[in-house]
């Protein structure tokens, strides 16, 4: 079986093949980037990465100046000792699982993923062969994380907006500016109301539209005209005074972490909407059971013991690769 190594606090190396997965600096000859979130993207600099077409476009829109080659989903790339194929991961637009096949076996690296997939992503698809080694993120790997259906969550998002607009208060959705913001916008689009988007998220929206996703009637956040529209912004912008001139407004925090009622007082929000771009605990167990890999590596989780316990009960061999848990969720 291929050797799997941690590389720094973010990436993975397959040293037998000189392949790097989500490496931020050039510590391997062939580097693959799963998606355009900051903790997975390479630093600018003299390295070349392979990524899905939408990931490269989003990286560019976020200011990435390094070299990047587009590798479409499902089209294998032949390297001297391996073949690498990207599969849609359902996390955000462009997000990919990276499947590496070699004479010494194969490895499936999930990156960040979600099943059922985000409605503003390319969907979710698994390779059609037996997976030898699975490297899976496990951000929400406790049985308290059980997501509601997409219909349910869409209803929560739309109802919150309609309720407060009808009372002349400005609904403010706190959502990370890549992925979550566009998902919330897509849910709000059928209402037809004017949406305003924080600048960092706003510049990424045209990429979503280019790939065919409807984000509704939106414009960039404007302090003078925000009153009466629906605002979508990362929570970090609240401390920086976004919409501070709007007197009557209500906050909805959209995140997997909204599962925790304690977040309400920490953030002083009016609604907690547990909308995550990661899969929940039960979907993770189900997927591992279905794939039945010879070896499963757990990454990106504050709670490896619990998920390892459950997987080992199902007869799966697991190992924890200690990596940073990100802020976007
Ligand atoms: Zn991510
Ligand atoms: Zn991540």
SS strand fraction: 15-25%
As a percent range, the share of helical residues equals 10-25%
End-to-end distance, in Å?
32 Å
Label the structural class.
alpha/beta
Order of helices and strands: EEEEEHEEEEEEHEHEHHEEEHEHEHE
Count up the helices.
Answer: 8
Distinct small-molecule ligands in the complex: zinc ion
Low-confidence stretches: none
Q: Please compute the radius of gyration using only Cα atoms.
A: 20 Å
How would you describe this structure to a colleague?
This protein has 329 residues and is of the alpha/beta class. 22% of the residues lie in helices and 25% in strands. It is built from 8 helices and 19 strands. The strands form 3 sheets. It has a 7-stranded mixed β-sheet with strand order 7-8-9-10-11-18-19, with helices on one face. Strands 1-2-3-4-5-6 form a 6-stranded mixed β-sheet. β1 (5-7) and β2 form a beta hairpin. The longest helix has 17 residues, at 150-166. It is globular, with a radius of gyration of 20 Å. The structure holds zinc ion (ZN) (2 copies). Residues 35, 37, 91, 112, 328 line the site of one zinc ion.
Q: What's this model, at a glance?
A:
With 329 residues, the protein is an alpha/beta fold. 22% of the residues lie in helices and 25% in strands.
Layout of SSEs?
Layout: E1 5-7, E2 11-14, E3 19-21, E4 30-32, E5 48-51, H1 53-61, E6 67-70, E7 77-79, E8 82-88, E9 96-102, E10 105-109, E11 133-137, H2 150-166, E12 170-174, H3 180-188, E13 194-197, H4 199-202, H5 205-210, E14 217-220, E15 230-233, E16 249-254, H6 262-267, E17 271-273, H7 281-291, E18 295-299, H8 304-313, E19 318-320
Parallel strand pairs: 3-4, 4-5, 5-6, 10-11, 11-18, 12-15, 12-16, 13-14, 13-15, 16-17, 18-19
Antiparallel strand pairs: 1-2, 2-3, 7-8, 8-9, 9-10
The chain binds zinc ion (ZN) (2 copies).
